[in-house]
Design brief:
transmembrane helix; membrane; transmembrane; alpha+beta; TadE family protein; TadE-like_dom
Length: 171
């Protein structure tokens, strides 16, 4: 009976499957995570570009933080809860007295109800402005390889940051 058991090849694929299946599942989950992140970031970039184009074409119109945020969220249809998870900064860039803007983006704290604006300067005619948008989202699978390697805040959210600059046109 022992010889028959030793020669039997039934179940011989269980061990390789048990060793390789977690790796393939991890790769699939990471692929879904990367695809989701790329889709959201591309959507944010495009929405920001479209909004800045609208701002440039709306000569002399001064937009508020809420108006720009609404315009970006209207253009970016694939960003869930965009109004509550998007934060904007508008920074005046002095070309004659150049100073690098703060590298760290101002992102919304999703744990709080209201997020104060760190920097929102609408500028004057012919001023060069930097508009920076930060959108936070909850990763698809924080336990996955890619989800575990992404930089998250204390609540587990990942920040996507997009920048665009434009010149405030005169009236």
């Amino acid at each position: 009976m022992f010889k028959k058991f030793r020669r039997s090849e039934d179940g011989s694929m269980v061990v390789p499957f048990a060793l390789w299946a977690p790796l393939f599942i991890m790769i699939m989950v990471s692929t879904i995570e990367m695809g989701t992140m790329t889709l959201r970031h591309s959507s944010l970039e495009r929405a920001l570009d479209q909004t800045v184009r609208d701002v440039r074409l709306g000569t002399g119109t001064t937009y508020t933080h809420a108006q720009l945020k609404r315009m970006i969220c209207d253009h970016a249809g694939v960003l869930p809860e965009c109004n509550s998870k998007l934060q904007l900064e508008m920074i005046l860039l002095h070309m004659d007295n150049w100073r690098e803007p703060d590298a760290k983006a101002d992102c919304v704290n999703v744990a709080r109800q209201a997020t104060p604006q760190r920097n929102y300067d609408v500028g004057e005619a012919n001023d060069v402005m930097l508009l920076r948008a930060c959108y936070k989202y909850d990763p698809f699978s924080p336990a996955g390889y890619l989800g575990g390697a992404m930089r998250t805040d204390g609540d587990g959210y990942v920040a996507l940051v997009s920048n665009s600059s434009f010149v405030q046109e005169p009236d």
